[in-house]
Amino acid sequence: MSTFEFLRYATLGQYVPVGSLVHRMDPRFKILAFALVVAAVTFSGTYLANVILLLTVFLLVALSRVSLGQALQGVRPALPVLAFLAVFQVLLPPQTFGGEACNLIWQWGFVELTDCTLRFIVVSTARLIELIVLTTLLTSTTTMAELAYGVEGLLAPFQRMGVPAHEAALTVTIALRFVPTLALQMERIVKAQIARGADFGTAGRFRFVKTTRRLLPLLVPLFLAGLRRSENLALAMEARGYTGGKGRTRRVKLRARPADYLALAAAAAFCIAMLNVDFATLGRALAAWLGQF
Amino acid sequence: MVLLLTEPSSVVFFAASRLPIPMEGAFFMHATEPLIEISRLYHTYEGSGTEPIDALRGVSLTIHPGEFVAVVGTNGSGKTTLARHLNALLLPTRGEVRVAGLDTRQEAAWPAVRSQVAMVFQQPEDQIIATTVEDDVAFGPENLGLPADEIEGRVRWALETVRMWELRNRPPHLLSVGQQQRAAIAGALALRPRCLVLDEATAMLDPAGGREVLALLQRLHADGVTIVLITHHMAEAVLAERVIVLSEGGVAFDGAPRRFFACPNHVTRLGLELPPVADLAARMVRRWPDFPAGLFDLDDVVDALAFRNVQIEPLSFTDPPFASNGRPSVAARDLRYTYLSGTPLAVRALDGVSVEVHAGESVALLGATGSGKSTLLQHLAGLLEPQDGHVLIAGKDAHARQTDRRFLREQVGILFQRPEEQLFETYVGDDVAFGPRQLGLDREAVRERVRRAMEAVGLPFLDYKDRFTQSLSGGERRKAALAGVLALHPKTLLLDEPTAGLDPQSRRDLLATLRHLNREEGLTLVVATHNMDDVTALARRVVVLEEGRVALRGSTRQVFSQAERLRALGLDVPAAVAVMAALRERGLPVPAGALTLDEVEAAIVAGTAPLPVSETERGDL
After folding, report:
1. Is A63 part of any domain?
2. Is residue A6 in some structural domain?
3. Which of A9, A45, A239, A271 falls 20 to 30 Å from B160 in CA-CA distance?
4. Same structural domain for residues A203 and A245?
5. How many interface pairs between A and B have CB atoms less than 8 angstroms apart?
6. B84: which chain A residues are within 8 Å (Cβ-Cβ)?
C-alpha cells in the first residue's frame, strides 16, 4: 500500500531550473523549433538518419544542461512496450515496407527475420526514444506558465479568425494547475474509503456493472469535489475581475532575441535537410566509401 | 484607485491607475462618502426543485473607508451571501448595493467594483489559478488591462507585503496552506483594492499561519485599507472596530465588539460564544452581580478583581493518573517516511517518530502545517506502509503478511480532514451503512449499527436516515461522516482536524460527542488539530511534532505550561491559558496548572468569601 502517492504519477513535466541557453529561449520559438525537430524524427526511416537524430538530440540535452538521467527518465517505462512491439514485428509474416527487396537474415521455424524488419524495429525504437527525450527536454526546460504563454503567443495571430487563443491558454493552465490538486484529493478519498472497508479491485472480468459500482465511493466524491472546486475557482476568478480575454494584458511580454531566430532557423534548416537528403543513397555511398579501406 | 498604502512605490501606480477616486487621509475618513452602502438587501437562492431559500432578509448597512469590520454569525446566517454582494459576485434579489456610489446591478460597473473591493475565500487552494505564485498574483492586474511593467511592480509589491517574494516561482501545490492563503491575499492586494473582504480566510490555517494573516490585516488596516473579516473565531472578531452579527439573514447587532460581548445571553442566543476575557468577566458577573458588567479588556478585569480585593486560592490542578491496561492500542516505533522519495521534490515527513497510545486514552497530536501529523495518523491507521520502523495495531505489526486487513479496519477508524467530502450515497442512512455492509453483516445487524452510530453523533436515526446527504448542513455532514466510521465499531478513532471550518455551535456539539465517546464508551482518540481549545476539551496527553520529530510530549497541563516553546513551534496555548498567564503577569496568583476558565473561576471563587448577593438594578442583558 505504499503506492499511495498519487502525486508521484501526476508530475506533468518536471521543470529543472538550471538556466541554460535552451531554458532562456522564447517559448514560442522553442515550441516551433521543437515541432520542427519532431517532424524530422517522424519522417526519418533510415539507420543513418536516426544516428544523426540521436546525436542531435543528445547534443540538445547537453546544451540544456539537463542531466542524462532526467532526460532518459521517460524512456524506462516505455521499454516493455518497445520490446513487445519488436517481438510482435518478428512474429508477423515478413513485410516488404514499400516494395523493397528484403533479405532473410535469420530463421527459426516459421519465424523469419528479414533486414527490412530488423531496420523497422531498430528505427522505430530509436525514433520513440528520440521523441520521448525531446518531450522531456521541452518540459524540463520550460515552465508550465511559459508553455501557456508560448501557445497563446503562437495562436494570437489567428485570434482574428476566431481562434480563442487566450481561452485555450487559460484552460491549459488551469488544467495543469489542478492536476496535482485533484491527484491529492483522490488520494485522500481513496484512503478514506479504504479505511471504511472499500475494495477498489475489479470484481472479475466482464462484471463491469459490479466493478463500476465498487468505484462509486471514489467517483461520486471526486466528481462532487471537482464541481465544488470549479465553482469556487470561477468565483475567485470573477472576484479578481476576470471577464474573458478582452482588454486583458499579460505580465510577461514575450520578446524574441536574435538567438531565438537563430535557433529557429537552425531547426528549420535541420528539418529541411533531414527530409530532403536521400539517406538510403547516402548510406550506401558511405558504406561503399568505408568499404574502400 | 486610491493612495492608501504608504509604501513609496505605490505613488508610481497611483498615477497609472484607472479609477482615481479622491479621498483624504485616515483622519477624514468618515467625512468622505461611504465605501459600501447596502439598503434593504434581500437575497433568495432559487433551488431547483427545492424551496427557495431567503439568505438575506432586508439587510441595511454602511461601511466607511478605513474601517475594520468583523462579520460573525452561525453557519447559514447569511455571512457568505452578504460578502458576495460586496463585490458584485451576487446581485440583489431586492434592494440595493452601492460600492463607491456604483450600483452593483450595472454590469458596466463590475470591473470598477471588483478592483475596489477584493475578496479572499476560505479554501486557499481553490482560488489559485496559475501554475506559479507570481503568475497567479498577476492574474488580477492582467484582467484590469494594466501595462506589463506596472503589473510586474504590483506583483512584487503584493508579494513583498505578504512576505512571499522569495517563493514567487513555487507551484501552488508545493506551498503550505498558510502560504497558499497569503498568496491568495497577495492576488487580491495586487488589484490595489480600497477594501479587502476575507470569507473565513483563517479557518484552514495553523495558529502561526493565522497569526501571520491577522498581523498582515492589521498592517493593511493601519495603511488605510478597509477590512471586512468574516470569521467564526470571536478572538478574531475582537480585533475589529466594529462587529456585524448576522442571524437568519438579518443584522442582529451592529456596533463595537465591546458592546456586543457585554451581553452574554444575547451572544449565546445567536449561537456564538464570548471571547475568553469577556467570558471570564461574565463569569465574575454571574458570581457577584455587582461586578462591573461588560468588561472586555484584560486590564479592566484585573482592576475590577483587585478593587474587590479578590483573593485567589492557590489550588493545584492535576489530573487523575490514567490507568493503562498495559498493551498499547496503536503504536509507532521509530517511523520514517519521505514523500516522493527519489525525485527532486522529495519531502521528509517523518524522521524517527515513536508514539504509544493506550486503550481508552485521548491524545492530541499538535504541530505546524507540514510537521507530519497527517502522515503519522495515516501510519497509525495502517494506510501508509512505513519506509522505516514499525506500526503496531493491537499489538500486531500492521504490515506483516499475516495481519488481516479486516482485523485492522475493526481496530482503527480514521476521519480525514473535511470528511464530509467522502460521503457518496444519496441518503444519509445508506452512507453510514457503507462500512458495515462491506463487513458483510446481515441486514438487521447493519441497521442496528447504523442506528447506534447515528444516535451516538447526535443525528436521530429515524429523522435523518432518509435525508439527502447533500441537503445537510456542514456540521451535520461532518457528523454523518463520523457516524460512517463509528459504524465500523473501531476501538481507536483517529481524527484529522475534526472541527476545522465549523461554527462555534457545531464545534461545541462535535467536541461534546467525541468527549462522550471517549469518556463513557471507552473509545480511544488520537486527534490531530490546529485548534488549541479542542485540545483542552478532548485530550489528556499531547504529542507535539516538529519537522517529523517529536518536539514535546506530556500531559496537556505540562505541555500548555510552555507557552514560549509552543509559539516557537508555530503553535499557541488555549485562549483560557493565555488569559491566565496575563492575569499572573499582573500579579494575580492564578494557579499555574489551570487549563480552562472553569478552573480559574473555581480558584477565584474559592479564595473569596461569598458576599451577600445584592439584587442590583443591573440584570443580565
Report:
1. yes
2. no
3. A239
4. yes
5. 183
6. 235
> What's the one-letter identity of residue B204?
M
Largest CA distance in chain B: 77
A136 and A261 part of one domain: yes
Q: How many CA atoms are closer than 13 Å to the CA of B572, on its beta-carbon side?
A: 20
Chain A segment 17-46 residues within 8 A of B by beta carbon are 17
When divided into structural domains, chain A yields a total of 2
Q: If we measure between CA atoms, which residue out of B210, B239, B211 comes closest to residue B69?
A: B239
Q: Is B169 on the interface with A (CB under 8 A)?
A: yes
The band of A80, judged by pLDDT with boundaries at 50, 70 and 90, is: confident
| Residue A9 falls inside a structural domain | no
Which of 139-198 (A) contact B at CB < 8 A? 143-145, 148, 173-174, 176-177, 180-181, 184-185, 188-189, 191-198
Shortest CB distance from A237 goes to which of B129, B383, B484? B129
Domains (range + CATH), chain B:
10-260 (3.40.50.300), 281-317+578-606 (no CATH), 328-547 (3.40.50.300)
Same-domain status, A107 and A191: no
CB atoms within 10 A of CB A14: 14
Q: Which of B126, B144, B399 sits opposite A236 (nearest CB)?
A: B126
ipTM of the complex: 0.80
Cα→Cα distances B202→A91, B206, B211, B217, B523, Å: 64, 8, 9, 11, 31
In a shared domain, residues A67 and A92:
yes
- Cell numbers for A209: 456493472
Instruction: Output the pTM of the full model.
Output: 0.81
Quote the CA–CA distance of B533 and A145 in Å, as a whole number: 42
Same domain, A137 and A160: no
Tell me: the pLDDT tens digits for B494-543? 999 999 888 888 888 899 999 999 999 999 999 999 999 899 999 999 99
Instruction: Give the model confidence (pLDDT) of B241-286 as tens digits.
Output: 999 999 999 999 999 998 899 888 899 899 898 988 888 888 888 8
Q: Does A269 lie in the same domain as A177?
A: no
SS3 B355: strand
The answer to whether B340 contacts A236, with C-beta atoms less than 8 Å apart, is no
Is the dihedral angle over the CA atoms B96, B102, B108, B111 positive or is it negative?
Answer: negative
A114 in the same domain as A169: no
Q: Which residue of B has its CA nearest to A9?
A: B340
Q: Which of A214, A240, A255 is the mutation pick for testing B, counting most B CBs within 10 A?
A: A240
Does residue A11 lie in a domain region? no
For residue B191, which residues of chain A lie inside 8 Å, CB to CB?
240-241
| Mean pLDDT within B469-475 | 84
A200 and A65 part of one domain: no
Q: Is the pLDDT of residue B417 over 90?
A: no
* A130 touches A270 (CB < 8 A): no
Residue among B148, B344, B414 minimizing CB distance to A249 = B148
